[in-house]
């Protein structure tokens, strides 16, 4: 089922064609030369998102990623390969008191800069385009 998207990705994606999501570095914490974390600010942007709820967390991530790959590799209103941005983001959801993780996971793909104004529509109705506000992220 994923043979065509993987072939498309392999044909069209060399490392120099991967767009890193733009951010402003706020803080960098190292210990003995090793990076512990970075505090980053990401600007307001549009993302293609899919929310999954499988029995296992890993299965939700995998299935969500595969659906996003189909969107990236031609299953969109433009019919074109959209290009890869890194990283693909996974959001683990918690209950209302934020004391436990739920089975719900969101997998999200930052739309490349050239597509931010008019992103192609996903052919898969489970994928939605959302505009996320500017946010602070801790990254390892």
TrEMBL record:
GO terms for molecular function: heme binding. Belongs to the HEBP family. Gene3D superfamilies: Regulatory factor, effector binding domain. This is HEBP1 protein. The lineage of its organism: Eukaryota, Metazoa, Chordata, Craniata, Vertebrata. It holds the Pfam family SOUL. It comes from the Eukaryota.
């Amino acid at each position: 089922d994923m043979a065509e998207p993987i072939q498309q990705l392999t044909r069209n994606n060399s490392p120099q064609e991967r767009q890193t999501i733009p951010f402003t570095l706020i803080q960098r914490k190292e210990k003995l030369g090793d990076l512990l974390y970075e505090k980053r600010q990401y600007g307001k942007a549009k993302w293609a998102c899919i929310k999954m709820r499988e029995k296992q967390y890993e299965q939700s991530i995998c299935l969500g990623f595969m659906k996003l790959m189909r969107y990236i590799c031609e299953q969109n209103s433009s019919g074109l390969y959209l290009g890869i941005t890194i990283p693909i983001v996974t959001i683990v959801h918690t209950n209302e008191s934020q004391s436990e993780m739920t089975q719900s996971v969101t997998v999200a793909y930052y739309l490349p800069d050239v597509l931010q104004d008019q992103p192609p529509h996903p052919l898969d109705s489970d994928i939605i385009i959302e505009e996320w506000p500017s946010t602070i992220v801790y990254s390892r």
